C-alpha cells in the first residue's frame, strides 16, 4: 500500500503562485559558473562555502557530500544521516513503509522538526550547518529569480549533474545552483529523475491542511521539473509531499542568527484536569513549530472542549491541531463541558434494522462496520466502489465500478460517508485509542452530545496481505480524490495509537478496507 498523502492544494497553490509569479517571468538558460560569491565557516572546523542571499540564513554553495556546485553529493532518506544507495534504499531507520508505522517523528512523540542527531547536514558538516526548514525554502523562492541552468564546474571527486536550477537573489545578486539529480525510489530500488528533476529535503514534517494532524509517513521536499514545457508549472508546486523513506539530496543552510543561543529545549505537558488517562510530555527546540495534540483523556459525564494554559480556564486557549512555537515550558489543561442527560437519551436508534448513533452531526453513523454483528467485529473488506467483499486484493482482481456497498447491502437511507462527513466526524469529536472487549481500535466521542462509536483496528489489505491488522482502524469515504488526473486514488480515513493518523490518506482503489456507513 503506497500512502500518498496528497494535500488539498487549493490554498497552498494560491500562496505559492503569489510567491513564484515574479520568478516565472524569466526562463532563459544560464551557465553553471564558478562558485558564487560567498564565505567560509571560519568559526568552526567545517570550512564549507556558503553564499549570502540576503535572507535569514546563508545557503551552502553545493550539496552535502559534494565538493563543487554541480556535484550531486549524497542522497538521504528523511531523518537518516547515512547516505543512501540503491543497495540499501529499501530499508528505513525509523519505521516500516509498508505498514505506515513510524518509530520516531510520529503521532506519539509529536516531533515536527528533525533533531540535530537526525539532521544529515549537521552530521556531515558540523558547526551550525543544518537542513533548511520549509519556511526557509519558501523564503528562498520568494526572494530569488529561478532559472534552468546548463553547464557547470565540478570537482574530479564528484559525480556531477551540470543541469539544474539557478537561484539568483533579488537582494544581493548572489546565486546558488541546485543540480537536477533526481531521487532514489524506495519501491523500485532505482534512481528516478536524474537530469530532469531536483528534489531537496526540508527538515520539517508539515500538515496537509489546518484540519489535520501530522502525517506520520510524509515529509516535504522541494522539487522542480526542468523540461521547458513543465518548468513553470512545476515551480507552482515546488513544495510537495514526498515519502520520507525515499532518498533526496540535501542543501545545507548556515544558521548565523541562532548559532549563538542554540539549542534551547522546552517541554509541553498535557494535564487531564479532572479527567483520566495519560498523554506524553513532549520536548521541543526553541522556536520549533508544534501542533497541539488531540485529546486522549476521558471524563465521565463530560466532553472535551479545548486546551487552556490555566486549569480554571483563565489563561490562553488552544484548539486541537493549532500550531504554535514554544517559548517556555508549558502545561495545557483539558477544559471540559458537562453533557446534558436529556441529550444522551435521544442518541441511538435503527434504520432498516441496522443500529445508528446520533453524534449530533449532519448524518447518523452506523454502530458497526459493514458485515459486522458487533462494534468490535472487523466485518468485511471492500475495494473502493466494489459491491462484493473479498479476502484478496490486487490490481488484477479489481473490478472498476462506483457501487455503494453500504447502500446495496443495508438498504434504506444507508450509504458510504462522503469526505466532508468524515471530516465533520473528526473535527467535532474526540478520538481515543481504546480496547473494547479485548479488541483494539478508536473510540470516537462526540464533543456535542457525548455519544460515541467504536472503530475496530481492522487494518487494510493490499498486495501482500493485511499488515496493519490490530493497529490501524480504517474505512473508505465515497468521495474520489481526482477522477481526471488520479482516477485510481480515493480517500480513506484512518486511526492508530495516538489519535487520528493524518486527516485523510489516499489509497489505491484495489486495496481492501472496512466500510462504516451513515444514514439520514
Outline, from the CA principal axes? globular
Distance between the termini: 33 Å
Strand order of the largest sheet: 2-3-4-18-8
Radius of gyration: 25 Å
Helices, by number, come to: 7
Brief sketch in words of this structure:
10% of the residues lie in helices and 32% in strands. The longest helix is centred in the first third of the chain and has 11 residues, at 10-20.
Could you please describe the fold and organization of this structure?
The protein is mostly beta strands and 520 residues long. The protein folds into 3 domains: 15-255, no CATH class; 263-338, Sandwich (Immunoglobulin-like), CATH 2.60.40.4270; 343-519, no CATH class. Helix content is 10%, strand content 32%. It is built from 7 helices and 38 strands. The strands form 12 sheets. A 5-stranded antiparallel sheet has the order 2-3-4-18-8. A hairpin with a 5-residue loop joins strand 30 (439-446) and strand 31. The longest helix has 11 residues, at 10-20. It starts with 9 loop residues before the first helix and ends with a strand. Mean pLDDT is 78; it is low at 1-45, 207-217 and 259-263.
Keywords:
mainly beta, Immunoglobulin-like, 7 helices
Describe how the helices and strands are arranged.
Blueprint: H1 10-20, E1 30-31, E2 39-40, E3 49-51, E4 58-60, E5 76-77, E6 95-96, E7 101-102, H2 120-125, E8 129-130, H3 134-142, E9 144-150, E10 163-169, E11 175-179, E12 181-185, E13 190-194, E14 197-201, E15 218-225, H4 228-236, E16 239-243, E17 247-248, E18 253-254, E19 265-271, E20 282-285, E21 289-291, E22 302-308, E23 317-318, E24 323-325, E25 330-338, H5 341-344, E26 348-351, E27 354-357, E28 364-366, H6 405-410, H7 419-427, E29 429-436, E30 439-446, E31 452-456, E32 461-462, E33 465-466, E34 473-482, E35 486-496, E36 499-500, E37 505-508, E38 518-519
Parallel strand pairs: 1-9, 19-25
Antiparallel strand pairs: 2-3, 3-4, 4-18, 5-17, 6-7, 8-18, 9-10, 10-11, 12-13, 14-15, 15-16, 19-20, 21-24, 22-23, 22-25, 26-27, 27-28, 28-38, 29-30, 30-31, 32-33, 34-35, 35-36, 35-37
Amino acid at each position: 500500500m503506497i500512502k500518498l498523502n496528497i494535500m488539498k492544494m487549493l490554498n497552498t497553490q494560491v500562496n505559492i503562485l503569489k510567491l513564484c509569479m515574479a520568478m516565472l517571468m524569466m526562463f532563459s538558460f544560464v551557465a553553471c559558473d564558478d562558485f558564487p560569491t560567498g564565505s567560509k565557516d571560519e568559526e568552526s572546523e567545517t570550512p564549507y562555502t556558503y553564499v549570502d542571499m540576503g535572507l535569514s540564513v546563508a545557503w551552502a554553495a553545493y550539496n552535502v557530500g559534494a565538493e563543487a556546485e554541480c556535484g550531486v553529493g549524497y542522497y538521504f532518506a528523511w531523518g537518516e544521516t547515512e547516505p543512501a544507495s540503491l543497495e540499501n534504499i529499501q530499508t528505513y531507520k525509523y519505521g516500516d513503509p509498508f505498514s505506515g508505522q513510524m518509530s520516531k517523528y510520529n503521532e506519539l512523540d509529536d516531533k515536527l522538526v528533525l533533531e540535530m542527531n537526525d539532521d544529515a547536514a549537521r552530521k556531515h558538516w558540523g558547526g551550525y550547518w543544518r537542513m533548511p526548514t520549509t519556511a526557509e525554502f519558501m523564503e528562498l523562492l520568494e526572494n530569488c529569480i529561478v532559472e534552468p541552468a546548463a553547464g557547470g564546474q565540478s570537482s574530479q571527486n564528484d559525480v556531477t549533474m551540470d543541469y539544474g536550477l539557478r537561484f539568483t537573489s533579488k537582494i544581493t545578486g548572489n546565486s546558488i545552483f541546485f543540480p537536477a539529480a533526481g531521487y532514489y525510489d524506495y519501491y523500485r530500488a532505482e534512481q528516478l529523475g536524474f537530469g530532469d528533476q531536483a528534489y531537496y529535503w526540508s527538515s520539517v514534517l508539515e500538515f496537509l491542511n489546518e484540519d489535520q494532524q501530522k502525517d506520520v509517513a510524509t515529509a516535504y521536499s522541494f522539487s522542480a521539473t526542468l523540461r521547458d514545457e513543465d518548468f513553470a508549472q512545476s515551480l507552482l508546486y515546488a513544495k510537495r509531499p514526498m515519502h520520507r523513506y525515499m532518498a533526496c539530496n540535501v542543501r545545507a543552510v548556515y544558521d548565523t542568527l541562532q548559532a549563538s543561543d542554540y539549542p534551547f529545549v522546552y517541554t509541553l505537558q498535557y494535564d487531564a484536569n479532572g479527567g483520566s488517562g495519560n498523554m506524553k510530555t513532549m520536548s521541543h527546540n526553541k522556536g520549533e513549530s508544534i501542533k497541539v495534540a488531540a485529546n486522549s483523556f476521558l471524563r465521565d459525564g463530560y466532553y472535551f472542549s479545548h486546551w487552556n494554559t490555566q486549569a480554571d480556564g483563565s489563561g490562553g486557549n488552544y484548539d486541537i491541531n493549532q500550531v504554535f512555537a514554544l517559548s517556555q515550558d508549558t502545561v495545557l489543561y483539558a477544559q471540559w463541558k458537562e453533557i446534558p442527560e436529556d441529550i444522551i437519551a435521544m442518541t441511538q436508534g435503527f434504520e432498516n434494522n441496522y443500529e445508528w448513533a446520533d453524534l449530533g452531526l449532519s448524518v447518523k453513523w452506523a454502530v458497526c462496520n459493514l458485515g459486522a454483528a458487533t462494534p468490535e467485529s472487523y466485518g468485511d473488506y471492500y475495494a473502493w466502489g466494489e459491491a462484493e467483499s473479498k479476502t484478496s486484493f490486487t490490481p488484477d482482481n479489481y473490478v472498476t465500478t462506483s457501487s455503494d456497498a453500504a447502500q446495496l447491502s443495508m438498504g434504506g437511507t444507508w450509504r458510504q460517508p462522503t469526505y466532508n462527513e468524515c471530516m465533520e466526524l473528526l473535527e467535532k469529536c474526540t478520538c481515543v485509542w481504546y480496547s473494547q472487549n479485548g479488541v483494539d481500535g478508536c473510540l470516537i466521542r462526540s464533543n456535542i452530545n457525548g455519544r460515541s462509536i467504536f472503530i475496530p483496528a481492522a487494518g487494510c489489505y493490499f498486495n501482500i496481505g493485511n499488515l496493519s491488522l490490530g493497529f490501524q482502524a480504517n474505512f473508505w469515504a465515497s468521495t474520489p480524490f481526482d477522477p481526471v488526473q488520479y482516477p485510481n486514488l480515493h480517500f480513506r480515513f484512518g486511526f492508530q495509537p495516538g489519535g487520528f493518523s493524518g486527516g485523510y490518506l489516499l489509497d489505491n482503489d484495489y486495496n481492501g478496507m472496512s466500510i462504516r456507513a451513515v444514514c439520514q
